[in-house]
Design a protein that fits this description.
The protein has 467 residues and is an alpha/beta fold. Helices cover 43% and strands 18% of the residues. It has a seven-stranded mixed sheet with strand order 10-13-14-9-8-15-16, sandwiched between helices. It has a six-stranded mixed sheet with strand order 5-4-3-6-7-18, with helices on both faces. The longest helix is centred in the N-terminal third of the chain and has 27 residues. The chain starts with 7 loop residues before the first helix and ends with a helix.
Amino acid sequence: MTNQSPELPGRIAAIYQSQKLFFESGSTLSYKFRKDQLKKLKDVVVDYEPQILDALKQDFSKPEFEGYATEVGFLLEEINFTLENLSGWMEKERVSSPLTSWPSKSYILPYPKGVTLIIGPWNYPFQLALAPVVAALAAGNTAIIKPPEQTPKTAALISKMIGENFDSGLLAVVEGEGHEVVPELINNHRFDHIFFTGSTGVGKKIAEMAAPHLSPVTLELGGKSPAIIDKTANLKVAAKRIAFGKWVNAGQTCVAPDYLLVHYEVYDKFVENLKNVITDFYGDEPLDSKHLASLINKKHFESQLEYLSEGKIIFGGKADHQKLRIEPTLITDAKMDDKLMQNEIFGPVLPILSFESIEEAKTVIAENPNPLSLYVFTSSSKFEKSFIERVAFGGGAVNNALVHLSNPELPFGGVGNSGFGSYHGKTGFDTFSHKKGIMKTATWFDLAMKYPPYGKFAFKMVRWLMK
């Protein structure tokens, strides 16, 4: 660690200890407490809505509509869904008991894990920092939140909102440079669950730091998420939905379509549709559009510029170095060994490839296995099943893009290279809960033959019961 604040270790230790004591007090266990904290979080978000949208705009020019729909509104829906269902989630789950344990009853009891750590990313700095907090609170945990330093206005606002409204023993925010704060947190404290959203490289480091403590980890990572356009697809609808999914937040979305695979018979027609949609969405001068976000910082902007030198630009490609903006850009003729096809793009550049057969498309996807999301546009159930049921990926949609995240009934998470663990709705509650398996046995009957010394009849009985 370099240039670490001398106060940081002591401050983190004090917060951690206060949360440990708060959890051990049993204060978080009741339904009423959890419900009250979730309602308070909702009220705080509603009260701070103008400041949240302004902070997002200051950090990277996020359009107001996108700020509300993908951050504020998204979080409010998650809280509302959790409040509606929390009492049921907390109930004991009755299960059957084997005859060998008669007379017994069995049940599963969800129990909070304890002190948790939530590390948020910069691309959706408000929603992705606090949506896991909703799950952690619902499950009865305490949480330390590390917001992304790349979005300083939003990070500071989250710190203010939490600090002014919640006991630090329950929720606390630690700001600062990730390379300083995160190792100090994880290396020196044993968290009962760590939830990280971000890049695969950093995710590996988080897992390594957590391993000596045996701290369970949820890693929400990324990957190259493909969108496959079949010749039977509604091309106009597909173009609109892909364009929205790709260029919302200027492509800085972990589940944005990262490249397109278009059937060769409809390739030209689809590309024309996509060009027209981009113009409809962002005008003839997208760099001046109030509906297009900027890239997060100069470093990320320059990494996106590098992609423009690969393949052939057939639409867009202009950049504004002052605004840190790049037009929605379509690229053809990309090679599989280009950076464009090796890295997760995470920006407004979109390579388009053609394919002839399902197997050819799958071969391309296999070059970057286990994408976080996969999208299939088709009218053919056979074509749909060949990808949805036969390719490993985190989650996805048919004839749409991104929208599967908006349904709290669906788990969200990666597989393999795109991470492990999931959340949203009850899945999030389960992620932050330990499932206690309990068997309760009556005492009015106690079969003597099950105890030593074991007789031959007892052995016959147990073989008959357990065969």
